Amino acid sequence: MTRSVKSLLCIVLSAATIVLCCSCGNEESPQATTAETAKTTVAPETTSVSTDDTAAAQPATYNYVMIKQKSDEITNDFDKIISGKKYKGATYLKIGNDFEYINVSGTANSEKHINNSINTCYYTGSVTKQLTSAAVMLLYEQGKLSLDENISKYYPSYEYADKITVKNLLTMTSGIKNYMLRESHIDNFVYVQPEVNMKISKDNSASENKKVIMDWILSQDLLFEPDSEYRYSDSNYYILGDIIEQASGVSYEKFVFDNLLKPLSMTSSGFDKTEKLAVSYQGRNDNESTLYPGVGYSSSGFISNISDLLKWVDGLAGGDVVSTESLDEMFTAYKENFGYGFFVYGNRLSSTGKTENYNSMLSFTKDKSEIFVSLSNYAYSEPIVIYRNFKNSISKFYR
Questions:
Q1: How far is CA 270 from the centre of its chain?
Q2: Which pTM value belongs to this model?
Q3: For residue 1, how many other CB atoms are within 10 A of its CB?
């Protein structure tokens, strides 16, 4: 389902009002199957998760006048890309102040005959890390933790605690092994490490599964000396969630709700399943443990929708979440273009996410002149592919 560009802004604004009365999620439902066959080989631990590509990484200065004049043509081109890639989910792109695009397709719940919409909620995967890094910076501003402190303050019995700082966790330079396994750099499928998977359960509480994961993470040898190199590891942000709890005295989820979601009126977002969560499709049963209670947590457990993620971008980039100084630090690329929870490519911040069969991408420029959000509940719908094709399609409008 597509909307004409002229009516999109009104739709988004009205949707933002509607979702104030809604919350994300739904009860668990059987997953649909597909004839498509996926690869089963798990990538080595050296896998780096990046959202970069040549076209998207280039700093773009758009001819906004031409984009406004050609808005119908651009919309039609984008519709064809979505249709041609058989993409199912919710997609939003804003360029400048005069062009917005929304496309929604696919089913949120086939049994209940509910289609996807901009108010449908999805697991956002690693987009969660943006909120976790912002929560850390808030605690830093409050003087409750230091970015340069060793994590021995929180884990005195951990063998390598004296070598690892909070900043190492934020920048993926700790050397800590990933409790997740990823098939490729675009996250086709993500699994829980076999040793962990044997001990967690969908019937466990979140705290029980969390203990299993934390015990495993803190029992592993380092892959390299801290700060000597970069390697993407969800374990870094899982530990940060626990540090947030220790530093704040409340649960990670409550801290995020009270300090990030509530102030930004992100009332459709959270960490619990409710009736607005889309059922996932096209997937395989061997990665369903990524959705067990407590497994995603502060690394990949966040649930949200298009409307709320636009509020997040507006609030974060607009300076309503953390100070300008903290924002500058978060938005500065460290090793391998990774900042604090984002990949940083010049003026653009970007995250992709994959958990179970859900896919996501959130990419925006620091001045909010370009915002791309795409969320899907179909395993073979990849937002980064849509984004790259969109960017290629509008490259003719670069100055």
A1: 13
A2: 0.86
A3: 12
Residue 13 CB-density burial (10 A; 0-12 exposed, 13-18 middle, 19+ buried): exposed
Domain of residue 186, residue span: 5-397
What span, in angstroms and rounded, lies between the C-alpha atoms of 130 and 257? 14
Find the angle CA(36)-CA(41)-CA(42) to the nearest 5 degrees: 120
**Confidence at residue 306, expressed as pLDDT on a 0 to 100 scale:** 97
The CA-atom distances, in angstroms, between 392 and each of 5, 52, 81, 142, 395 are 20, 14, 11, 43, 5
Rounded Cα–Cα distance for residues 276 and 266 (Å): 14
pLDDT digits (tens, 9 = 90+) for 111-130: 999 999 999 999 999 999 99
The domain tally of the chain equals 1
Q: What was the pLDDT predicted at 349?
A: 96
CATH code of the domain covering residue 112: 3.40.710.10
Q: What pLDDT, on a 0 to 100 scale, did the predictor assign at position 188?
A: 62
| Cα separation, 326 vs 331, whole angstroms | 9
Going from the C-alpha of 332 to that of each of 151, 255, 260, the distances in angstroms are: 22, 24, 21
367-383 per-position pLDDT tens digit: 999 999 999 999 999 99
